User: Fold Mitochondrial pyruvate carrier from Arabidopsis thaliana x Arabidopsis arenosa.
Amino acid sequence: MATSKLQAIWNHPAGPKTIHFWAPTFKWGISIANIADFAKPPEKLSYPQQIAVTCTGVIWSRYSMVINPKNWNLFSVNVAMAGTGIYQLARKIKHDFATEAEPAVANE
Assistant:
């Protein structure tokens, strides 16, 4: 039973013998790097980078559900990309717009 399941995965059109498996697998590196950036101060985050990560995640998540055969590896990595991008954008926006401006101290 286990052998037949492994063989089915191995021979799947989006299985390990194809680029449709390896490209999303290596794309996990972007999501992992974005997760590592959670420790970064928000002022060091980049709007263009996080917008690109978020849009890529959203667009390709949708695309991965439209194509045949369904590529769940592609879907999951792009959901992760969208999620981490949205979180990082929220951190950056909160830092830039929601924090109160510090009052200037007069030197007298």
In short: The radius of gyration is 20 Å.
